[in-house]
Design brief:
434 Repressor (Amino-terminal Domain); 4 domains; 6 strands; 6-stranded mixed beta sheet; alpha+beta; 434 residues
Length: 434
């Protein structure tokens, strides 16, 4: 059992929290009070047997005394210290703080994680409000009805000699506009509340409806694998989607996933992935005689895959977005211009790899790999169609395997807090960071 120099401090804090006297704990553990006193002041190492006895008396797991519950807290507290604007906390004494004040350490680490969660929620909600075409349309309808009601009411209130025929017309218009305002307001409230009628009212974009369905399926279709029931088994779920456009997108997606499953059989693919060590998409594509984007999709849409993926067409519009924790993806509009995804669009058939860092409290790093494929569906005489994908893999804090300086990227300019970004298109509404 691994023990640190603060094991004794943890014993003392647990003893005081339990209201047990030093002599009583020593007697119950079968050791002398003087020896326990030396242990609690970290002047004697503790054997496994003694530690087990102390843990039993204190009613805790021995690992809480040896390693502490602060293994994850230390990383959070160090990250929180890095965000301090004024006097910097004493990082060299963080282990002592964790050992002596586990309650305060847990509180601070929890607050840090909560702030990060709220920050991501604010960014996502702002992005939704700012770039949602359905919300914009609903607000426009409400404002239009309000303006019409106000104009008609002003005419009726300020004009004394209106002929009965015209007064009746104005009343009729006022009634119609009031009805339109009520309907628009109800639709807006239902959309913001995320009610059960949201899908039926057309408030969700077909792309989002498709992504919601894929997320509920875990971004994986077991039915399409070898020995599965096949694409027909998914038809009832597809037919249950609210909009025809979403159903069409889902059928196209399932057809593509079936082709990927056929060209990259899951068992053989995962075996090759384990054997490669690096999981290089180009090498995997060459080994199976398929294209790189198929490998990207297969990597991201395996069962319990940790990688995220974004797909875009030649215009740069994001068509499918599989999220990954901490890497914010915009709902609408253009994403960060510094993403390797857009560099790949300008350099077809050329692999692009980068270590990137998203803004935020944790400053999580990601390994981004992007690739652009070109098609000529009508031959030499036809247009060129480009499609690109970017694979997003979180980099572990320790032993990530991808070194060097990280590329500072964001989600989209409006909600990106990086204050000194040379690629910024518009001011950010978020607090700036260096």
């Amino acid at each position: 059992m691994s023990m640190t120099g603060l094991t004794g401090s943890r014993v003392r804090e647990r003893r005081l929290a339990a209201g047990i006297g030093q002599a009583n704990l020593a007697r119950a553990a079968g050791i002398s009070a003087s020896y326990l006193n030396l242990i609690e002041h970290n002047r004697r190492r503790i054997g496994d047997a003694v530690l087990a006895k102390l843990a039993t008396v204190l009613g805790v797991d021995p690992r809480l005394l040896s390693d502490g519950a602060e293994a994850g807290q230390a990383q959070d507290l160090r990250a929180a210290a890095g965000m301090a604007a004024g006097l910097k906390p004493e990082l060299e004494r963080i282990d002592e703080f964790l050992g002596r004040f586990p309650g305060w350490a847990d509180l601070l680490a929890g607050q840090y994680r909560r702030i990060g969660h709220l920050e991501r929620m604010v960014a996502a909600l702002n992005d939704r409000i700012s770039h949602d075409p359905h919300l914009s349309q609903a607000l426009h309808e409400v404002l239009s009805a309000v303006s019409s009601v106000r104009s008609t009411a002003a005419i009726l209130a300020e004009t004394e000699d209106i002929e009965p025929e015209w007064r009746a017309r104005f009343h009729s218009n006022l009634h119609a506009d009031s009805e339109r305002l009520a309907v628009g307001a109800e639709a807006l409230v239902a959309y913001l509340d995320g009610s059960e009628h949201e899908a039926d009212s057309g408030a969700v974009a077909p792309q989002e409806e498709l992504e919601d369905w894929l997320a509920k399926r875990g971004w994986h279709f077991e039915e399409l694998e070898v020995g599965g029931a096949g694409a027909k088994a998914l038809e009832p779920e597809i037919s249950a989607l609210a909009s025809g456009a979403a159903r069409a997108l889902a059928r196209d997606w399932v057809a593509q996933a079936a082709l990927d499953a056929k060209s990259l059989p899951l068992v053989a693919f995962e075996a090759a992935l384990d054997a490669s060590g690096t999981g290089d998409p180009l090498q995997l594509a060459q080994a199976f005689g398929t294209d790189v984007l198929s490998v990207f999709r297969r990597l991201a849409f395996r069962k319990n895959a940790r990688e995220g993926l974004v797909l875009c067409d030649g215009s740069g519009a994001l068509m499918v977005r599989k999220p990954v924790e901490g890497f914010a993806l915009p709902r609408h509009g253009a994403a960060c211009a510094l993403w390797p995804l857009y560099s790949a669009l300008t350099r077809p058939s050329q692999p692009i790899s980068a270590l990137a860092e998203m803004p935020g409290l944790a400053m999580q790093r990601y390994h981004l790999r992007a690739y652009c494929a070109v098609q000529y569906p009508f031959g030499f005489a036809g247009p060129e169609l480009r499609g690109a994908a970017m694979l997003i893999a979180p980099v572990p804090t320790v032993g990530g395997g991808v070194g060097g300086a990280a590329l500072a990227v964001g989600s989209t300019c409006r909600i990106c807090p990086r204050g000194r970004c040379f690629a910024r298109r518009e001011p950010s509404i978020m607090a700036e960071i260096a």
